[in-house]
Structures are given as structure tokens and as C-alpha cells.
Amino acid sequence: MLTDILILIAGFILLIKGADYLVDGSSRLARRFGVPPLVIGLTIVAFGTSAPELIVNILAAVQGATDITVGNIIGSNLANIGLIVGLTAFLYPLKIQGSTIKKEIPFMLLSGLVLLAAAMDKAFNMGTDNFLSRNDGITFLLIFSVFIYYLIDEIQESRQQKTTEKKEFAEAYPNKDHSSVKLTFLVLGGLLAVLLGGKLTVDNAVNIASALGISQMLIGVTIVAIGTSLPELTTSIIAAYKKHSDIAVGNLVGSNIFNTLLILGISAIIRPIEFLSAWYLDLIIMLVFSLIILLFAITHKQIIKRWEGGVLLTAYLMYIIVAISRG
């Protein structure tokens, strides 16, 4: 067990330092090229921290274990909204940009509603079972392409401020290497450390819990569920600590959009997925959490305050308790 504990500690160190490099490199790279940090959070950081879900779901779809795919995505999205936004805002109140309130969060809500509609074949008299078909997967990818088009448009608009951004960048980092290649390696190295640290942490936490006689069910809904969200968690907390709320929020909102539209879209195209009845409650809770975030951001001058983070965190813990009771 001592070896597991030491590797667990090493995993945490990799997570924290990796997130530090990822956030620092992302924010500097954004300013280097005059791209809004929010866009970096919605793309590079979000896609990178969603890589574990992408790999797990593609492998599950290829192997025919489709019962894992949707549960993995909904569970990850719930953790992003309830656990990570809640804990991050509780530690460091989150400033939400106007465009995020008007566009990105509503798009995240839309992606959840599209998933709900696609999973209701019986209700629409389109079949005897509820499936995410290949056509649904194609639809998800088409909607995702609209999101990518929007991001490209945001980048093009930001080019008008490129000169100003570069000047601010040089003033902010007067003694640091501005090489885009080195900044890119900083981002990729940080991302790799976060992903590796997350895996080491989860694997060895499970080993320790098993050695202590903790049930597999409890391990699954706590250590593994939270552990797969460790890349997003550490990255968002470090980003908020460094006053980069746009990267923190972009990471989480972007990750949920990537998870729902891109990952489930690819998974459904590889192999149609039966939507289990137990997932409807989780999906509805996910949509409610998304709506709560939107309401919190609208009602308090675009800031999710500490007490609101506490509300989200408490609601997520209640969900975990319900999940445990359901078995």
C-alpha cells in the first residue's frame, strides 16, 4: 500500500504542476496570437481535458460496451457543472463573460436538450426502444460543426485587436520567452502531465480503497467518477486562482459541449447506443444544473459567488448520495 500512496502523491503533484503549466501556457499563447483566452479554454483546454472521455467512449463503442458510453458522458458533465464549477466558485468567485451567458452556456443547454430529444424514440413513435442511432450521431456532429464555426468567427473578430493584445502580452511578460513553439510545448506538456497525473491518482486511489475494504460501488461513484474529472477540476481551480476565469469557465462549458456532441456523436456512428431508462433522471439533473449556472450568472452581475458555488456543490453531493442509494 505504501507504493500506492507514494504514486498517489506523485499523481497529485503532476496534476497541480501540469494544470499550472497548462493555464499559464494557454493564457500566454492566447495573448501571443491575440486570441481571447475564453476561446482557448473552449477549444484547446476543453478538448485536451476531455481526451480521457473520448478514448474511453471510442474503445467502448468499438468493443460493443455501449452501456458505458452515455453514463460516462452524463456523469462527467454533471461533475463538470456541479462539482467543478461549484468548488471553483466556492474557492474563487467566477466572473462570467457576457458572450458566455448569451452564447456558450445556452449552447451547452441546447446540446443537452438535443441529447434528450434524440433519446426519446418511443415518445416520438420512432421505434420500440430508445436508441442513439447513427443518424443521431451525424446530427450531433453537424451541430458541433456549428459550434466550431462560431469559434472560428470569434477568432477572426479578435484579430482586429491583435496589435493591442500583443502589446499587452509583451508588457505582461517582459522577461519571458515569447516563442510560440515554446508556449505550445508548455501547453502540451502541462496537458500531458494533467492527464497522466489524473490516471495515476485514480488508479492508486482505487487500489488503496480496495485494500481498505471499501465497496466497488462506492469506489465507482466517488473516486472513479470524480477522478475522471480531475483534469478539468485542477485546471479550472488553477485558472481561477490565477484570475483567468475565462479559461476556467471555457474549459468546463467547452468540455460539456465536446462530450455531448463530439464524443457521443462519434460513439453513436461507430455503434448505435441503447439509452437506458436510468439515464433520463441523470440527464434531466444535468440540464437543471446547466440552467442554474445560467441563472446565477445572469442575476449577480455576471459573477458566480461563493455561496452559489456552495449551492452547486451541495446539490452535486446530494446527487452522489442518490446515486449510491440507487446502486
From TrEMBL:
Biological-process GO terms, alphabetical: intracellular calcium ion homeostasis
Compartments in which it is found: Membrane
Membrane association type: Multi-pass membrane protein
CC annotations in GO: plasma membrane
Molecular functions per Gene Ontology: calcium channel activity; calcium, potassium:sodium antiporter activity
Presence of the UniProt keyword Membrane in the record: yes
Residues making up the signal peptide according to the UniProt record: none
Transmembrane annotation, as ranges: 6-23, 35-61, 73-93, 105-124, 136-152, 183-202, 208-227, 248-270, 276-298, 310-326
Top-level taxon of the source organism: Bacteria
Residue ranges of domain Sodium/calcium exchanger membrane region in the record: 5-152, 183-324
Keywords: Membrane, Transmembrane, Transmembrane helix
NCBIfam families: calcium/sodium antiporter
Protein name as catalogued: Sodium:proton exchanger
Species name: Candidatus Doudnabacteria bacterium CG10_big_fil_rev_8_21_14_0_10_41_10
Organism classification: Bacteria, Candidatus Doudnaibacteriota
